[in-house]
Amino acid sequence: MALIESGAVAGQGISPKRKVRAGEIFTLDMPPPVDPEPLPEDIPLDVVYEDADVIVVNKPAGMVVHPAPGAPTGTLVNALLHHCGESLAGIGGERRPGIVHRIDRQTSGLLVSAKTDRAHAGLSEQFAGHSIERRYLALCWGRPDRADPRLAGLDAVGFEDGGWIRVDAPIARHPQDRKRMAVARSSGRHAVTHLRVLESFGPAGAAFASLIECRLETGRTHQIRVHTLHIGHSLIGDPVYGRVRAPSRAVASDTLRERLFLFKRQALHAATLGFVHPATGNLHEFSSELPQDMNELLNLLRRND
Predict the structure, then answer these.
(1) Could you give the residue numbers annotated as active site?
(2) For the chain, domain boundaries
(3) Suppose 78 and one of 41, 100, 177, 191 were both cysteines; which one would form an S-S bond, judging by CB atoms 3.0 to 4.6 Å apart?
């Protein structure tokens, strides 16, 4: 059907829905095969750390980690193949060379890739064992408050020392929308997020937005975005799991209201990444400042207060 719709098939009255009769002749112009392996592309990288075994990069929002339907080129993998050269080819698989974890396309921040088989095995083991230190900064709607009776009443929510809120809720594919994830009541993969409020914005007791820190105990697809939605505090700008809840003019300037409305990506940044180096055994920890778009919105929230 795809070949017919693309014009590659020629014949009398050709149509994807028409039945073919015996003896009819059609001409097929086969398109060139698509290379199944990603190719190197000269894409600038913000390299935070690099040695013979690993490379840590600061991924910008909008960049896909590895080629996939809808994003066959321009990915982090394409950039890494160009930056690292032939040494990266085949590490951990031809389709996703060097990749041991990923962050969403519109999420910015730190990501580590392996440059050797030894590093790939060592980092993969740490991710599987949930020993990697991963902390995110995010802007969410409202204020996740331990004193909120609705929040305290959720079975998935617990409270820890230091102001941390623990969300322990399994995640699976959404039953009606396969592009979304959702908290699963009776199935799904184990998922735990720890979060705490760093700053809140708006009247006391009625904050309309907060800067939160999130620490991942597990690493499931869209985990932070799904868990913050589950507790009623979805991320600002999230096009899939959030909705605009701009504050009233009584508590926010028109400029701030407009910026909140126009922020079109989830306000989520992978700010801290820590792991044991798979070759040396030394503990490495890296940090990344907020990108410009989140930092500008945060400063606007602070000025409004």
Answers:
(1) 104
(2) 1-32, 34-128, 133-271+290-304
(3) 41
Gap between the Cα atoms of 225 and 157, Å rounded: 15
**Whole-number pLDDT of residue 257:** 96
Helix (H) / strand (E) element for 121: namely helix 117-128
- Rounded to whole angstroms, the Cα distance separating 59 from 78 reads 13
Residue 77 CB coordination number (10 Å): 26
- Alpha-carbon 121 to chain mean position: 23
The CATH T-level fold of domain 133-271+290-304 is: Pseudouridine synthase (3.30.2350)
Mean pLDDT value across residues 253-282: 96
Residue 178 pLDDT > 60, yes or no?
yes
- Measured in degrees and rounded to the nearest 5, phi and psi for residue 121 equal -65, -45
Q: What predicted TM-score, i.e. pTM, was given to this entire model?
A: 0.86
Contacts of 39 (CB under 8 A, 6+ apart): 73, 78, 81
CB 66 within 8 A of CB 76: yes
Helix 254-262 × helix 292-304 angle, to 10°:
150
Report the CATH number of the 34-128 domain: 3.30.2350.10
DSSP letter assigned to residue 75: S
- The pLDDT of residue 27 is 73
Do 133-271+290-304 and 34-128 have the same topology in CATH?
Answer: yes
- Residue 294: predicted pLDDT: 98
Query: Does residue 33 have a pLDDT over 80?
Result: no
- Nearest 5°: the CA angle 87, 85, 88 is 35
